[in-house]
Each structure stands twice: as structure tokens, then as C-alpha cells.
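Q: What residues go here?
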């Protein structure tokens, strides 16, 4: 392992980790931050993305002893908990951060070439919701996620953390052009299902039973206003999760998990 003890918070080698609280800075410089022992482990052991560096306390580094030797070119900066918090600017409870290189933007057609289940997001702007959708997609065997306009960055630190590292392992791409991507999927034989609380939409279980053997793209929308009329028009199915009339809708991440479970 390439372990380097550091005791100076101003050491230039730690510059990636000063971007922890500034997502725009990391984005501009082409990297992302992974936070927590499990998430960093997934970056090192399972992700196709390159790891730039690891910042860890001694106790956190011990939990990665089985994966770090397989990454001898990755510098591991060993620091105290106090120094880590001074560099990052807040309390890193699990004593472990890593930086990784952002991948080049992928073409969505290549990303879903062999897929059977994909999730498509339109204007899902909350990073925690995006991360939770990635986590559910990984849990219920979705193959990829396509990101429509105004959706949160899945490689933002909070999204990666909420996804429990699924954003580092599950394929994703921008759905561009929008909503033309949905029309293209429908024309190619996909069952493109808009998830909506509309009373006249098909019940989820009915749709899942009929379409289980088909290629399905599950389309979910904005946390407050749902899918735009343009996105709804480009889908060839509208699907709802039956709930009590006294509740207007489900959180988008919760609804995605329920739908993915039924489809699986």
C-alpha cells in the first residue's frame, strides 16, 4: 500500500479533500468525493471509476486492509480525525474519504444496449432522492439510470452516500435530447411507463404482470409537480401505485422502490 502519513492540514496533496463542502469545485476539476468506509470500499473494489486518493484515519484504514493492497498506485493519506475534519470542514464520522475521476459522458444508447430495466429521471433535483433511487435500482436489478433535465448529479457526495455506493457501480447517462429519448425508447419497443398518481392510470401490479417479460423504462418526475406534460405524452404507458385517498402521493424515491420491486 502507498500509505503516506500527513500532519499538516495545508499539505497540497490533500487539495481534493478541501472540495468536500463545495460540489461545484470538484465538478469543475473533474473529480468526485466518496464518503464513508462502505462507499470508499465500493469505489476501490467494485467501481469502474479510477480512484485518485484516499484520506483515512488509522482505524478506518484497517477496515480497508483487504482492498487497498490491490490499488498500489493510489496514495492513502493517513491523518488524525482532527486533521481530517480541519481539511474537510465538517465532522467525517466514519473517518474515511476518497476522491475519484469523473467518467466521460456516456451515450445513453450504449449504456442501455443490453438492458431490460432502466429508470429515467426528469427534474429529480434532490441529491438524497437521486441517491435513494440508485440504491433501489441496484437492489431490484435495474440495469441503468437515464438522467433527464434538471436532475441532481449522481456523483455529488450526498447522492453517492445515500446510494450506499450504487452511484459508483450502476451505469448511467444523460437522456439527451429530452423528451425525445423517451419517444426513441418507445419506438424501439420499450414499455415506457410514466409513474403518476393520476386516478386514470393503470395500477402498477396490472402493468407489472403484463409487461414483466418486456423491456421497461420506468419514468419518474419532480418531487413536487411530477412529470411534465411533454414527458407524459412521450411515454406509452401511465402507471400508478394505489394508495389511500387521504394521501396525495408518495415520495419519488419511495415510489420508485415500490415500482421496481413489483417489476422485479
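A:
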Amino acid at each position: 500500500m502507498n500509505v503516506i502519513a500527513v500532519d499538516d492540514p495545508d499539505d497540497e496533496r490533500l487539495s481534493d479533500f478541501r472540495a468536500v463542502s463545495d460540489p461545484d469545485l470538484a465538478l469543475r476539476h473533474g473529480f468526485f468525493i466518496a464518503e464513508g468506509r462502505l462507499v470508499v470500499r465500493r469505489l476501490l473494489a467494485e467501481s469502474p471509476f479510477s480512484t485518485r486518493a484516499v484520506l483515512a484515519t488509522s482505524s478506518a484504514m484497517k477496515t480497508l486492509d483487504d482492498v487497498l493492497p490491490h490499488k498500489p498506485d493510489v496514495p492513502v493519506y493517513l491523518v488524525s480525525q482532527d486533521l481530517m475534519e480541519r481539511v474537510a470542514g465538517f465532522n467525517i464520522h466514519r473517518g474515511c474519504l476518497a476522491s475519484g475521476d469523473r467518467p466521460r459522458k456516456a451515450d445513453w444508447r450504449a449504456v442501455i444496449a443490453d438492458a431490460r430495466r432502466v429508470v429515467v429521471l426528469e427534474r429529480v433535483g434532490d441529491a438524497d432522492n437521486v441517491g435513494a433511487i440508485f440504491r433501489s435500482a441496484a437492489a431490484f436489478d435495474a440495469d441503468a439510470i437515464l438522467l433527464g433535465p434538471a436532475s441532481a448529479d449522481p456523483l455529488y457526495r450526498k447522492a453517492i452516500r445515500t446510494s450506499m455506493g450504487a452511484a459508483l457501480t450502476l451505469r448511467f447517462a444523460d437522456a439527451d435530447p429530452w423528451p425525445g429519448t423517451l419517444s426513441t425508447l418507445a419506438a424501439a419497443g420499450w414499455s415506457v411507463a410514466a409513474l403518476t398518481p393520476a386516478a386514470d392510470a393503470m395500477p402498477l401490479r396490472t402493468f407489472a404482470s403484463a409487461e414483466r417479460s418486456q423491456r421497461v423504462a420506468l419514468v419518474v418526475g419532480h418531487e413536487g409537480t411530477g412529470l411534465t406534460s411533454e414527458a407524459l405524452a412521450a411515454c406509452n404507458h401511465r402507471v400508478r401505485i394505489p394508495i389511500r385517498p387521504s394521501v396525495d402521493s408518495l415520495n419519488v424515491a419511495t415510489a420508485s422502490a415500490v415500482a421496481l420491486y413489483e417489476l422485479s
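A: Context that may help when evaluating the design: The mean pLDDT is 95. Residues 32 and 111 are 21 Å apart (CA to CA).
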